[in-house]
Design goal:
4-stranded mixed sheet, alpha/beta, 303 residues, 7-stranded mixed sheet, globular, binds S-adenosylmethionine
Length: 303
């Protein structure tokens, strides 16, 4: 009986030692492989609160990097090359959603009378036909918006504010042929996979999502040596992943990337075409979020 008791004791002690060794080895391996650590929630909350302050800022308090009034010709310069043609091909029953529209100037330009003096070849010569929805967390509508929207009519032009893209249901928003995002949700969200999933759920099959993201690892590999990456992606083992490589793992889409390595903030111009309805976006978790214009973010692909 005593023999059995002492062997149970020895077994327990050996198991405890083994558990300690396993913990040490796992931690050591993790640190050596540079496995990224998840941020503490209070830290993320603090940064999100700072980011909210930026969204709510008005007048002189708006940080200089937080630009909210880009027009349609800026969109033409910042979005992938097919954007103007795609917008120009929309008919009167088609719909365009601009996520993170700020003042909504790009949509106002789209509905402005075609100006013969406008430079040829720019989107600004389109003269709006499609219906459009501008979305912003904070309401940045100007008097100009109110006037022009009143003359175009509520059924053709809408401004949604007060919540984020993820807080709208599919029924509330309906489907779109074109979705744009110029330094909006795609550059500011703390949940990039969820945002992309939502965008793709709102796109009609055959429709296109046009966006831009700055200071990322570029698809063409021509990154500047001294670049500070504002949006970083890593795989489950902590190795760097390009934003376009991640996007290309999504089912039911065709991804086009145009790398702008010579821009002040090297940027990737992204066009995602939805080709079938069974979309599935590889999930990522947040590793870092620091408030800014746009914020600094680090995400890790889930295995
Ligand atoms: C820097 S402004 C860009 C405005 C406009 N696109 C431009 O280029 O002038 C960022 C915009 O993105 C919006 N935004 C950020 N995250 C968003 C989200 N998850 N859903 C909807 N809007 C978002 C902000 O409220 C704001 O309207």
């Amino acid at each position: 009986m005593r023999l059995v008791k002492s062997s149970v004791k020895e077994w327990k002690a050996a198991a405890a030692c083994l558990a300690v060794v396993i913990v040490i080895v796992v931690q050591a391996l993790g640190l050596r492989a540079g496995w990224p650590q998840e941020p503490a929630q209070p830290q993320v909350d603090e940064e999100m609160a700072k980011q909210e302050k930026i969204y709510r800022s008005r007048g002189a308090d708006v940080p200089s990097g937080y630009v909210t009034n880009r027009g349609l010709s800026d969109y033409a310069d910042l979005l992938p090359s097919g954007f103007c043609d795609a917008l120009g091909s929309l008919g009167s029953s088609d719909r365009w959603l601009d996520i993170g529209a700020g003042d909504g100037q790009a949509i106002l330009d789209y509905y402005a009378p075609v100006d013969a003096a406008a430079p040829a070849g720019k989107c600004s010569r389109l003269g709006g036909r499609a219906r459009s929805v501008a979305m912003s967390i904070e309401d940045r509508r100007t008097d100009k918006w109110q006037q022009q929207a009143a003359s175009v009519g509520d059924d053709r032009i809408r401004y949604l504010s007060g919540k984020r893209l993820r807080n709208y249901s599919g029924e509330e928003l309906g489907k779109f042929q074109i979705i744009t995002d110029v330094f909006g949700g795609f550059s500011y969200t703390e949940d990039l996979s969820q945002l992309l999933e939502k965008v793709l759920s709102l796109l009609e099959v055959g429709g296109g999502f046009y966006t831009v993201v700055q200071s990322v690892r570029l698809e063409d590999g021509k990154d500047k040596l001294d670049i500070y990456y504002q949006t970083e992606l890593v795989d489950a083992a902590g190795r760097d992943v390009k934003v376009c490589s991640w996007l290309k793992q999504t089912a039911c889409v065709k991804v086009g990337c145009e790398s702008k390595s010579d821009w002040d903030a090297p940027s990737e111009l992204i066009n995602i075409r939805k080709v079938c309805s069974d979309v599935s976006v590889p999930r990522m978790k947040l590793l870092k979020y620091e408030a800014g214009n746009p914020p600094a973010r680090r995400f890790q692909l889930e295995p």
